[in-house]
Design a protein that fits this description.
The complex is a heterodimer. By secondary structure, chain A is an alpha/beta fold. Chain A contains 17 helices and 11 strands. Chain B is of the alpha/beta class. Chain B has one domain: Rossmann fold (3-Layer(aba) Sandwich), CATH 3.40.50.1820. The chains are: A alpha/beta, B alpha/beta.
Chain lengths: 431, 261
């Protein structure tokens, strides 16, 4: 079982009357609610929290991409992963991910992920989300009817760019390139593991099953609501004749740990309320742009994550409701252990993306919850899914080849094959 | 009368609503919402013209929407349809997105268009008059965007939703399918370069607008007039974007009068 400490990087200071006064936290959220001086502190606070999670022994550090969004301040998660690559050394960097259809040309993603992979010594998980309706259609102006086709084309281009040994020409419908020739190329071979985060579209399950990618269901509504999606995914895998392996499924879950169940409520209830009622306050018209979901996905009635019904259901929900309906797994270490064990078994997932910093939660509470989880929950769940090989996890450099920031190195050309070595004239001259 | 015509290329089946008869052809191109089964004005126009109103592929029972990726594919589709029906040239009447496509067709093939009527037409963009985003508008906002009187019986009829869950799901899927096709011409900005091609429209053109159109405001009538050489503007009071539905008699009088003059 593997645990990734996932950060959304929300703005912690949306006003109390936000929900009443504004129609959406996403797309057209008023620009002046963001104070960049506060933002400076927040970015550094959040990176500190991710670095703390590395020290606490989490397997992965997760970041993701959102645009024009009050609860996700990372238009470019790659910048955060770059910062983490230098200041962390144990955890892998789970970038979930880059919305590959939005980059022009998409080779940009192949390049930046290759940079991150090389910089981090092969610690990168490369996430390829389609991107939400808000991010792709409403913020980035994509035509919803062609988004999936553009996504598939970008995927083909990136994977070819990572794997083909010689420059090639690419004649796509959306991207045409004469010379595709990646410099630098990724460190992991043939390329970093690819994870596809999704919101429950049936097409995405088939895409993952077809290519053998990991599927990560990113929802904020907990494992009980996610059961239907997980079952759909496993059915798709069976249809494609794939062996069952829990590590091919990831799931995001909000968690919060305190000394007792009651203490957890006292510590965290206000921040959960901030998250569910302010951060997830999204204008209904942005959630499902016409053509964003296929008729099949609509018919499968896997309603969008932030749908009308969900919003109605959330009105007036209390801490008790969040816990009982499984939106959050929160309480004493024992409660969280039991809840997570049930979630892991019921979804049959080998990767958990855990959300500790929720809504307005300040750093001292984030650290408390994280540390208690690392000491009193994680060790008890480690042994779940014995005997399965995780083929979706980075293969990093051996320890003796890993660079240590700030230290001096032996001449790296010693690593090279003899025929590739150049004569270092400048160095000789300076001797 | 409803027919479904399979084109001999095999690429599309086309659902066509047909009224009237004879050789005086009028082709009506619907807006982004599509034909709604409440087009009284098509029956009225059928008294004077042989009217065909095809559903664009992706709408109703018309198939092959995936083959139409942009304005040029749509223009070729209408050529193919006219060929199939033996229509050498026709009057073209286009509403909203249909106006945009009708204007494109007239710019590409001036000799296939007798006269042109653009109603509340899309296709241009004025920074001073940004067209509201109706793709993200929720059902409570739409009536005020579309109608002069959002509470009129016509508005209520066209905006009504079924109570039955099955029917509601079917309606949601059909709406999603229609607007997905429309997004190829209209999203994120309904401008695909018509302005630079409009000089080729030589036929007499009427620009017909509802005075209270809050979706594509009448300023756009003037904008079309500056780029189409032989165009007149008609503004109908107490009408909005859905002018042909809101004021069918007055609408048809204007259109017939113009086409027969």
């Amino acid at each position: 079982m593997k645990f990734t400490w996932f950060h959304l990087m929300p703005y912690r200071f949306l006003p109390d009357d936000f929900k009443r006064k504004y129609r959406s936290v996403w797309v057209d959220i008023p620009r002046d609610l963001y104070d960049p001086r506060v933002g400076h502190k927040l970015y550094n606070e959040y990176l500190d929290e991710l670095e703390f999670a590395d020290k606490m022994g989490f397997d992965g550090l997760g970041v993701n991409e959102h645009h024009q969004n009050g609860y996700g301040l990372m238009p470019s998660p790659n910048i955060m992963a770059g910062a983490l690559a230098r200041r962390t050394k144990n955890a892998n960097l789970v970038v979930l991910g880059n919305s590959i259809a939005l980059y022009n040309p998409p080779i940009r993603v192949a390049e930046e992920f290759a940079m991150l992979d090389v910089l981090s010594g092969g610690r990168l998980v490369a996430g390829f989300p389609l991107g939400t309706s808000m991010d792709t259609v409403f913020c980035y102006g994509e035509v919803p009817a062609t988004l999936r086709e553009k996504y598939r084309e970008a995927h083909d281009l990136i994977v070819r760019a990572w794997t083909e040994p010689k420059p090639f020409a690419f004649n796509g419908r959306f991207t045409k390139l004469r010379y595709v020739n990646l410099w630098p190329r990724p460190l992991q071979q043939p390329h970093p593991p690819i994870w596809v985060p999704g919101g429950g579209s049936v097409e995405t399950w088939d895409f993952c099953a077809e290519h053998g990618y990991q599927y990560s269901f990113l929802s904020y509504f907990g494992y009980k609501a996610a059961k239907k999606v997980a079952d759909g995914y496993w059915e798709a895998m069976a249809r494609w004749g794939r062996d069952f392996n829990p590590y091919s499924l990831g799931f995001a879950q909000v968690v919060a740990v305190a000394e007792t169940d009651n203490q957890a409520e006292r510590d965290y209830a206000a921040h959960m309320d901030y998250f569910y009622n302010r951060c997830l306050h999204v204008h209904i018209g942005f959630v499902d742009a016409p053509g964003y979901r296929s008729p099949a996905s609509i018919r499968a009635s896997l309603v969008g994550q932030i749908n009308k019904q969900g919003r109605w259901l959330r009105e007036g929900l209390t801490w008790k409701d969040f816990v009982e309906q499984g939106y959050i797994i929160a309480g004493s270490p024992r409660t969280v252990r039991d809840g997570l064990r049930e979630a892991i078994k019921s979804l049959r997932c080998g990767h958990l993306m855990l959300l500790f910093q929720i809504g307005s939660m300040p750093p001292e509470l984030v650290r408390k919850s994280t540390e208690m989880f690392a000491r009193e929950v994680m060790p008890h769940l480690r042994d779940m899914w014995p005997g399965y090989e995780d083929r979706w996890w980075p293969k990093r450099l051996p320890a003796d080849e890993m660079a240590v920031p700030g230290s001096t190195y032996a001449d790296p050309s010693n690593l090279m094959a003899d025929e590739n070595k150049a004569t270092p004239r400048a160095n000789e001259a300076s001797k | 009368m409803k027919t479904v015509l399979k084109l001999s290329s095999g690429r599309h089946s086309v659902e066509i609503h047909e009224t009237g008869s004879g050789d005086n052809w009028l082709m009506f191109l619907h807006g982004a919402g599509g034909l709604l089964g409440a087009e009284v004005f098509l029956d009225l126009l059928g008294r004077d013209f042989h009217v065909i109103a095809p559903h664009l592929p992706g709408y109703g029972e018309s198939t092959g929407g995936e083959l139409i990726e942009d304005v040029f594919d749509a223009v070729l589709f209408y050529h193919e349809l006219m060929d199939e029906l033996g229509i050498g040239s026709a009057h073209l009447v286009g509403h909203s997105m249909g106006g945009m496509l009708a204007a494109e067709l007239a710019a590409f093939s001036p000799n296939r268009v007798k006269r042109l009527v653009l109603i509340a037409s899309a296709g241009l963009w004025l920074d001073e008059h940004p067209i509201p985003d109706f793709f993200s508008a929720d059902v409570r906002e739409l009536p005020a965007m579309l109608f002069y009187d959002p509470n009129s019986p016509t508005a209520r009829l066209l905006m009504s939703t079924p109570d039955d869950t099955e029917a509601l799901t079917a309606m949601y899927i059909e709406r999603s399918k229609r607007l997905a096709m429309a997004s190829k011409f209209l999203w994120p900005i309904p401008d695909r370069g018509l302005k630079k091609r409009a000089y080729r429209i030589k036929t007499p053109t009427m620009l017909l607008w509802g005075e209270s159109d809050r979706l594509v405001p009448p300023a756009y009538a003037r904008a079309f007039q500056t780029c189409i050489r032989n165009a007149s503007v008609e503004i109908i009071p107490e009408a909005g974007h859905m002018l042909p539905y809101e004021k069918p008699e007055e609408f048809c009088k204007k259109v017939s009068g113009f086409l027969r003059s």
